[in-house]
Amino acid sequence: MATNSYFQNSIKDQNLISELNRELIQQAGQDVMYMPRTLVKEDLILDEDVLSQFDVKYDIEMFIKTFDNFGGPDDSITKFGLDVNDELILTVHADRFQTVTGMDHPLEGDLIWFPLSQGLFEIKYVENEQPFYQVGKNYVFDLTCELFQYSGEKIDTGVAAIDQIESENAYSIDLLLAVGGLGTYTPNEPVYQGGTLATATAKAIVSSWTPGTRKLRVYNIVGTFATDTYVTGDTSGANWDLTSTDDQLLPTVPFADNKILETDGDSILDFSEMDPWSEGDL
After folding, report:
1. Paired sense of beta strands 38-43 and 81-83, if any
2. Which of 18, 19, 33, 205 could bond to 113 as cystine, CB 3.0-4.6 Å?
3. Do the beta carbons of residue 116 and residue 30 sit within 8 Å?
4. Whether residue 190 sits in one domain with residue 141
């Protein structure tokens, strides 16, 4: 027996449910930022994301489906430090998402900035059939997200709280500069050695500048910085001569102990000898 066409899968009923879902999310939800992932370099053989960046953000409201606390495995202490596995489930209205972002649906690997915890979460799974075909249609996406673990991505959204995640976690080195330089480097500005930034022999982005010790910390390094050569700030115009670099101790990685091991090793063995393991008779 055929279903009654006046009551089953009515377009008017679908529109009503869709609007109710939209209003509920806007009334009881939370404003977040959706950041799509842009693949810069993709390994087509292994199908891996070698290098990606996040330089676009969309302000949109989402409902926090995780109502009591963060889900996921319990936090644990490992040999690499504290491992935090916070999980968050968010619900976004399908039509609102398409209108705001121009995308058909959210994608795994994209990021969401959650302002309540000041955390950046990565989408691990997108569920598009929950609730299950109310009046013959789905109206929302459920996004299962995990706390984002930075791994070299470029983040440039224009929001300081988000962009600093890159400068705080990216691989960085310290440039030790000579006395008598000019100007003050500014955070997140490009610095370089050479005639111009376009023709630079080495370039990087400023993480921090400490005038008292003349220490310039940089990340996103391209090329090798040479000593006795000036380091120029692209926007500030600062110009200081480089005396030495220190790329051993990574201050953003608290468990890095390579410099400690070298210092202790130098106090035990004289590595200036041709054969430090002998008694001096070889």
Report:
1. unpaired
2. 33
3. yes
4. no
In this structure, the answer to whether residues 44 and 116 fall within a common structural domain is yes
Three-class SS of residue 204?
strand
What would the pLDDT profile of 208-221 be if each residue is shown by its tens digit? 899 999 999 998 88
Exposure string over 195-206, b if 16+ CB within 10 A, otherwise e? eeeeebebbbbb
Q: What is the DSSP string of 108-121?
A: TT-EEEETTTTEEE
- Distance separating alpha carbons of residues 118 and 198, to the nearest angstrom: 35
Show which of 123, 155, 187 is a domain's final residue: 155
Q: Is the pTM of this model over 0.85?
A: no
Q: Show which of 131, 155, 179 is a domain's final residue.
A: 155
DSSP string covering 48-107: EEEEEEE---EEEEEEE---SS-BSSPPEEETTEEE---EEEEEEEHHHHHHHH--SS--
